[in-house]
Amino acid sequence: MSGLPPHVAEALKAAAEPKGWTEDEDTLAPYLTEWRGRWTGTTPLMLSPATTAEAAKIVAICAEHGVAITPQGGNTGLVGGSTPQGEVLVSLRRMKSVRAVDPLNDAMTVEAGVTLAAAQEAAAEADRLFPLSLAAEGSATVGGAVSTNAGGVAVLRYGMMRDLVLGIEAVLPDGRIYEGLRTLRKDNTGYDLKQAFIGAEGTLGLVTAATLKLFPRPAARAVAFAALDDVDAAVKLLALAKTESGGAVTGFEILPRPVLELVLAHFDTARDPLSAPHPWYVLIEMSFGREDGARETMEAALAAGVEAGLVRDAAIARSEADAEAFWRLRELAPEAEKADGKAIKHDVSVPVAAMPALYETGCAAVAAIAPTARVLCFGHVGDGNFHFNIAPPKPDAGDFWDRQEAITQAVHDAAASLGGSISAEHGVGVMKKDEIARRKSAVEMDMMRAIKRALDPANIMNPRVML
Ligand SMILES: Cc1cc2nc3c(=O)[nH]c(=O)nc-3n(C[C@H](O)[C@H](O)[C@H](O)COP(=O)(O)OP(=O)(O)OC[C@H]3O[C@@H](n4cnc5c(N)ncnc54)[C@H](O)[C@@H]3O)c2cc1C
User: What three-state secondary structure class fits 333?
Assistant: First the structure.
């Protein structure tokens, strides 16, 4: 057990007894590899506390002995932040109680290991909506989503995790418990401390529970799959759909033909809803408080889009099964890309109106470096967020990967030149650590480091991540 003195290991195991630890290599294996296999790690010991008290005890022992911790939820993060490299791994997956669902306050309190899908179900049982939704929601946990400030497909209407958290309970790096589980909508009593843990990627403590905002469940939705010529048309159609529907647009996702083709090629159940190919597609979802007029509103928005020369063809879902099938085309995009092979991934955002410029500038810059590279770009138009992924040509000429760093810099430069971010929703992890140090101002980096030093002076919480 390298790096972990036996008496410390024994104390940690005792704190997590009886089922909350393992050193078994086979059991550990799935916790030590990132979803795409890009990072593989090691740990002397995985601890899985079942309660906040156990988690606090584990962190206190680590603090006393200067033992570094990597926190982990569902291990679906995409920037390498949950893969330990010799640290003790603390998995929050056993903390999965729904502590309270409070429909009158439109709030619920769940523990960190509750998956996003389970949180959605708990809300639905109380006839409420917990809106955070993303393709990995069956495995991604509330603790992980808080720690990465996750986004997903409903940000346009409901915001990111930061907008959905009312309160947080966390174990600080010295083992004390911050009890910040509140259902207050207004609380101006100083610094909003919970915000420090949202998007902190485990660097400031272990999130053990969160109180989340709930919403009325829409009574009806209309979902359409529309074909367009370019990204410019998508941005204009979004504005038009918002106006035509009186703000009912809850999802507006984009994918180009090559990504749709990958989905169709890799998933037998996927079907192109339209009869002829087009360069770009958007998936539009509108949500309504009542059934009446839902389909008509979508039809009116699409008709206005056709009239304005934006929409080339469109299909409106006739049933929930159709709607699900349309959504699957977008949700399967990451998995289809994974099945296609390795690609250089970017998660960039710009102001919504700058998305066409981002696409054009980014493509031109990539083409100047690797003319035969494939741009497999999809994302969330409503949030100005492109997953700007660059795949090697087919067949791979072999020298594509030598240009990886230049390609990444070109895409990030394109986003930065338009006032954008190099990490829209996936976080920093180990993947973008050097990049944020280069691109954020010295003042911003100093402020981040000062917060880290103040809460974690011994640097035991996810020490290789973010800073
Ligand atoms: C197919 C697929 C699609 C995805 N789509 C999206 C998307 O649309 N939008 C989006 O935002 N993300 C997306 N992601 C990324 C990922 O699902 C999210 O970042 C998710 O929030 C991570 O949750 P997790 O429980 O798996 O966290 P993990 O991967 O386990 O951890 C992520 C980070 O948070 C830290 N952490 C985890 N739990 C805790 C805790 N309790 N306390 C403190 N730190 C903790 C870890 O140390 C790590 O740094 C996708 C991932 C996949 C695989």
Answer: helix
**Does the beta carbon of 70 lie inside 6 Å of ligand 1?**
yes
What is d(CA 365, CA 403) in angstroms, rounded to the nearest whole number? 12
Q: Is 35 in the pocket of ligand 1 (CB under 6 A)?
A: yes
The pLDDT tens digits for 196-229 are 999 999 999 999 999 999 999 999 999 999 999 9
Alpha carbon of 439 to ligand 1 centroid (Å): 23
What is the distance in A from the centroid of ligand 1 to the CA of 85? Answer: 18
Residues of the chain with pLDDT under 50: 1
What CATH number was assigned to the domain covering residues 98-216?
Answer: 3.30.465.10
CB 91 within 8 A of CB 46: yes
Among 48, 79, 148, the mutation site with the greatest number of ligand 1 atoms within 8 A of its Cβ is 148
CB of 244 sitting under 6 A from ligand 1? no
Report how far apart the first and last C-alpha atoms of the chain are (Å, whole number): 27
Taking alpha carbons only, the member of 433, 420, 432 closest to residue 386 is: 420
Check pocket membership of 44 for ligand 1, CB cut-off 6 A: no
Q: CATH for 6-91, among 3.30.43.10, 1.25.40.10, 3.30.1230.20, 3.40.50.9100?
A: 3.30.43.10
pTM of the entire structure? Answer: 0.93
Task: Name the CATH architecture for the domain at 341-426.
Answer: 2-Layer Sandwich (3.30)
pLDDT digits (tens, 9 = 90+) for 168-191: 999 999 999 999 999 999 999 999
